[in-house]
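Justification of resources, computational component.

The compute hours requested in this renewal are based largely on the per-chain cost of generating structure records like the one below. Each record pairs the submitted sequence with a full C-alpha cell output. That output is archived, and it is also reused by downstream analysis tasks.
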Amino acid sequence: MTAQLHYKLDNPYAHRQREIIRKIALEAQALPLLDSGLWFHDDVRNNFYYASYLFAAAVEDSMLLEEEREQARHKAEAVLLETVLLQNRQPGTRLYGHWPLGLSPLPREAAPHELPAEIMGSLLVWFCKHYNCLLSAALRVALHTATGHIYRSGYFRKEVVHYGHHEAKYTAAKLIFGQLFGDEVLRADGIASLEQTLEHIRAKGMPEYGSLPWFWHWVQAFTCAWELEADSRVRALLGEMLDCLWEVRADFYLRGAWVGAHSRGWPHDVPADRNVLHDYVQFGDFPLTGSMPRTEYAGFLFYEAPAQARETALNRREPVEVKKLTQKVNPDDSQEQPLLHSYAYITDTYAAGGLWERVEEFDNEQLRWAYSLPVSGEGEVNRLYFFHPGEGYRTGDPRHQSPYMEVLYHKGTVLTLFPVPEGTDDTVIGVLPIGEWLEQEQALYGLVRGVYFSVWLSDTYQLTRRADYLEVTASGMPGGVVVEALTGDEAADQGIGSLAEFAAVISALKPAFVVESGGGQTVEYTALSGDLLRLEAGIDKRPVTAINGNIVSLADYKV
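The structure output for this chain reads:
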C-alpha cells in the first residue's frame, strides 16, 4: 500500500481510521500551545503524533472546515519542526540522533533518551514519504536531516536476544533505514533478524504475553516497514510476521478487551482496556471512546489481519477455551527457560483467565488473572480481579502484584489462594467493575452489563468507591477468593431473571476455605455446572489443582 494512504480508501477500516484522524486533529486544533511551542512536555512523541494527525486533516478536503485548514496546517508544521529540532544532532556525543523523552521544564535543555527514536524514527520516515511534497521547505529539510542523524546513530544495530518490543523496533528500523540509505549490509541484518524473530515466535510463543502497550509497538513497527518495503520477498516476510501478531491478538480478543494474563500493563491498560485504537480499526465491533490515551499511528498504519484471525476474534457465539504455551527468554543459557501456560475462557459477553505461573516481569507489572467485559463507549473499567500487592503498588493504582498467589482456572470460575508469609501485609485488593452489587459479610453478588458475578472471600472485607471501579480490601490472609461468572443467557436457562434470584441460587454454593496451622491452605468449590474444584497451596508447597478429583494437566497447551 506504499502508493497511497490507506485511510483514503473506501472500506470500513479506512472509515474508522479517518474517524480517528479527525478526532485527534480536532483535539489538537483546540489544544493551546505551551510557551515552548509544543502541546505536551510529558512525552515528546505525543507532540509528533498529534501534529501528524493535525497536518493530515489540514491537507484533506473533508476533515476540517475550509477556513480552518491553513491555520491548522501552520500549527501542525510549527509543532513538528519544534519537535524534530529537539533531536541530538551532534555526532560523537552520547545518544546522538536521539530525542529527549520528558521535556520539562525546558524542552530545549532536556537530555536525549534512548526510547523515542525506537518507534518515532521509523514513523518519521513514513510521514516523510507520504507527505513530503506537501511540507514547507523548512520542515522538509528538517525531517530529512533528522532521518540522516537517525541512520548514522545506528541505534538499531543490535542482535536479537530477548525477542521483545525493543528488538522488534530495531529489526523494522534496520529494514526501513537500510532501504532508505541503500545500506545492503544493514538490510541483510534486518532480514536475518526478522526471520530469526518470526521463527522464535512460531516455535516458542511471544515472551511478552499480553504486553500492553508494547504489543502495539510490534504491530506499528512491522506495519510501517511493510508499507514502506519495496522488495516483494521481504514484504511477504513482513506480512507473515504481521499475520502471526494478529493471530496472537485474536486469540485473546473480546470486543476490544485483551483477556487473560498480561506481562505488562500501564494505567491506560489496567484495570480498564482504554488503549484500543488499533483494535478499533481492525475489528470495529465496539464503540470508540472519547478518551484516546495513546494515539500513536493507529489512524495511519494498517495491515489487514488474516481472515481466520478475524473470524476467531469476531465470532464468539460459542464459548471457547484457549490454552497457550509460551517460553520465557533467559539470555543466560545456564538457566532454565521457563514454560508459561496461559488459559482463557471466552464467551460472547465475558471472558476469564490468566497465567498458571507467577513470573517476575519488568517493573513488576504482571496481571496474573482477570475477568474481562467488552469495551464500552464510556471507557469504563471492564475487569474484575484480585491480588496481593507487591513491589511498586500504590493505593489507587491496582497493579503491581506480589508473588503470593496460587490459582485454578476452570471455564467461568477462578479459585485463588494467597499464601502470605507471616510478617507480610495480609491484605488483598480486588477490583470490581461498576454495576449492581449485593453485599454479604463474606460475599458479593453482581450484575454488570448483563453478566452475573459471585465473589466469595475467606474473610470479611471493605468496599470503597473509586473514580471508575469498586475496590475491595480484605485482610486476614492466608486465605482466598473464589469468583464465578454466568452469562445472561445461562442464567435465563436456569430460571434466573434478576440479581436477587441469582444471589439466592448461588449463595448455597459457598466455598470451603481451610487454613492449617502449618501454613497450608485449601479451598473447595462446587461450581454451578456441578464440577468440584479444589486448590491446595502453602508458602513452601507446590500448589495442587484438581477438577472432579483429577489433577489438572497442562499437557494440551500449545504455542
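Residues 147 and 320 are 47 Å apart (CA to CA). The chain is about 35% helix and 20% strand.
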